[in-house]
From TrEMBL:
Organism of this sequence: Nocardiopsis sediminis
Record family assignment: Belongs to the 4-toluene sulfonate uptake permease (TSUP) (TC 2.A.102) family.
Major place of residence: membrane
InterPro entries: TM_pro_TauE-like (IPR002781), TSUP (IPR052017)
Keyword Membrane included in the entry's annotation: yes
Protein's recorded name: Probable membrane transporter protein
Length: 239
C-alpha cells in the first residue's frame, strides 16, 4: 500500500480531476499531475497514466454513440510515434523544458482559438493532434489539449465521447511504449491501481456537471480547462 499521505493528497486531486473530466471531457491529468509531481515525482508519469486509463471506460458507457470514429482512425495511429518520442523524453531528455514549451504552446493555441476562426478537423490536423498528444501524454501524463482544441466547436456529447476514445486507446499506447522502453515500474503500477477508486468516485460525482456544459457551455468550459492545463504544465515543469 502506498503512503497514506500520498493517497490522501493525490487521491483528492484525482477525484477533483475525474469530476472535471467527466463533465468537460478532459481534466484528470491537468488537476492531478502537478500534485503527484510534488508529492511523489518518482511515480510519474506511470501511476497517473494507470489511473487515467480507467475513467474513459466509464465515460464511454454513456457517450459511446457520439464518438467520431473517423477522427480516432486518423488520430490514434499518429499517437504511436508521438508516444515513442515521449518515452525517449522520459528516459533521456529534460522533461521540465518540454513541459514549459508545450504549456506555452497550449496557451498560445487557446489565444489563437479566441482570436481566429476554427481549425478544420481533417486527416492532417487529426494526425498532428494525435502525435502531439502522444508525446505530451507519455512524457507528462497530460495529453488532452491538442485533441480538445480541435474538437472545441463540436457538440458536448461528441467532445466527451471522442476524447474518451482517444484517452482509452491512447493511454494504452503510452503505457505499452513506456513498458517496452523499461520506463514503467511496478511501484508506479501499484500506486496507480490504488488511485482507481478515487477515479470512480470522481466519475459518479461528475455526472451532474454534464448537464451544465451540455446547456451551451461546452466550448467555454473546454477552453478554460485547456488554458489551465497549459498553465499547469508550465507550473509543473518549474517546480
Amino acid at each position: 500500500m502506498p503512503d497514506p499521505s500520498f493517497l490522501l493528497i493525490a487521491g483528492t486531486a484525482v477525484v477533483l480531476g475525474a469530476i472535471l473530466q467527466t463533465g468537460v471531457g478532459l481534466g484528470l491529468g491537468l488537476v492531478a499531475a502537478p500534485v503527484v509531481v510534488v508529492v511523489a515525482p518518482s511515480l510519474m508519469p506511470g501511476a497517473l497514466l494507470i489511473a487515467t486509463a480507467v475513467l474513459p471506460m466509464f465515460t464511454l458507457t454513456t457517450e459511446w454513440r457520439h464518438i467520431d470514429w473517423r477522427g480516432l482512425a486518423w488520430g490514434l495511429p499518429a499517437r504511436i510515434p508521438g508516444s515513442v518520442a515521449g518515452a525517449w523524453v522520459v528516459a533521456t531528455a529534460d522533461r521540465a523544458a518540454l513541459g514549459v514549451v508545450v504549456g506555452t504552446m497550449v496557451l498560445a493555441a487557446v489565444g489563437l482559438s479566441l482570436w481566429s476562426g476554427r481549425v478544420r478537423i481533417t486527416p492532417a490536423t487529426l494526425m498532428a493532434a494525435g502525435a502531439v498528444s502522444g508525446l505530451t501524454s507519455t512524457a507528462t501524463s497530460i495529453g488532452g489539449p491538442p485533441v480538445a482544441l480541435l474538437y472545441q466547436h463540436e457538440p458536448a456529447q461528441r467532445v466527451r465521447g471522442t476524447l474518451a476514445g482517444f484517452f482509452l486507446f491512447g493511454v494504452a499506447i503510452s503505457l505499452g511504449v513506456l513498458a517496452a522502453a523499461g520506463q514503467l515500474h511496478a511501484r508506479e503500477v501499484h500506486a496507480g491501481l490504488w488511485l482507481v477508486p478515487f477515479v470512480i468516485a470522481g466519475f459518479l460525482a461528475g455526472r451532474r456537471l454534464t448537464r451544465v456544459v451540455d446547456a451551451g457551455r461546452m466550448r467555454a468550459a473546454l477552453l478554460a480547462v485547456v488554458a489551465v492545463s497549459g498553465a499547469a504544465l508550465v507550473a509543473q515543469s518549474v517546480l
